[in-house]
Amino acid sequence: MLLYWILGAVGLICCVIGLAEVICFIEERFMDMGPKKTVVSVIPVQGHMEKAEYILRSAVFELEGIRHHDVCVIVVDKGADEETRQVCSLMSKEFSCISVCDEKQLPGLLQDKILLTSPV
């Protein structure tokens, strides 16, 4: 008897998850969200940052969860040490959505990201 209750609860949970997935599919497929937009996150790095890799991975993970949008993480070097700069460079090679720049390059990079997604 207990086994039937457990199987019923598991079946109900699966049905709810399946229904949510169907609703998301219908929304993605049939709802016109307009042109894709880019969500940009700017992360400044300065000095020695022990958690630079963690911060960048977290930013990419959080932004990739946003549906219907392209994502971009811009790392602004504001005087980072060599190790932090190297970590950021390696992360930009691992994730195509990460760009590394200095403060002088930031306005141009932001303008490029915004203009790439503007409707013509």
Strand content: 15-25%
* Total beta strands: 3
N-to-C series of helices and strands: HEHEHEH
- What's the helix count? 4
Strand order of the largest sheet: 1-2-3
Radius of gyration: 21 Å
How many structural units, i.e. domains?
2
Helix content: 55-70%
Termini separation (Å)? 63 Å
How many strands, what sense, and barrel or not for the largest sheet? 3 strands, parallel
Choose one word for the global shape: elongated
SS-based structural class? alpha/beta
Mean pLDDT: 83
Unreliable stretches (pLDDT < 50, length at least 5) are: none
Name its key features.
three-stranded parallel sheet; elongated; 120 residues; single chain
Give a description of the structure.
This protein has helices at 2-30, 52-64, 82-94, 106-117, and strands spanning 37-47, 69-80, 98-102. With 120 residues, it is an alpha/beta fold. It has a three-stranded parallel β-sheet, with helices on both faces. The protein has two domains: 1-31; 37-117. Strand 2, helix 3 and strand 3 form a beta-alpha-beta unit. The model has no long low-confidence stretch (mean pLDDT 83).
